[in-house]
Amino acid sequence: MKKFLLYMLYFSLLYDVVHLVYRTVAKYSLENLVYDASLVIRDLIVILIIFKITRSKKKRTKFKHFHNGAIIAEMEREYEKALEIRNEGLKLSGLSNAERAGLHAGNGGTYLYLKDYNNATFCFDKAFELVQEEKFPYDKQYIEVIDSYVKANRKEDALKLVESLLQRQSYHKKFKKLEPVREKLLTKYN
Prior knowledge:
There is one protein chain. By secondary structure, the chain is mainly alpha-helical. Helices cover about 75% and strands about 0% of the residues. The protein contains 9 helices and no strands. It is elongated, with a radius of gyration of 27 Å. It starts with a helix and ends with a helix. The relative contact order is 0.07.
């Protein structure tokens, strides 16, 4: 049915374009040219709408599909959709711990953006638990993550997280940048 409809629209578009060109060459009135041009535009819009509506949605089957889909949803400010996409991805079997942690951390980042610090820290807990034995690089966003624990009234957990991340200096020296954060936590909350 879709193909038949599209063929009919293509033929209609072709007819309208030929008709427009013929009238342009024959120098008919401006009214007729505007009308013919509007028919061509109408045909193009209808074809685009049909493609948009009937476009097959590819099924997400890999980590990158869910990760990228969630990022696109966030760029479009559809934060609930981003959370749903990542949660759907977490149901996949065959994901590595690092991939699962990435999805949890992404959800944590979304909740952090939404200022839902309790859910954000819950997601970060899951992410860090999954990669506690893995080596991962330093990221300046860890400071925001630690701050989310403080905002969720989980100051002791924030301190434990900082200590855990500081131990990773053995393979990535940039984790040393978290020492001032630890000092701030120690002085401010003890």
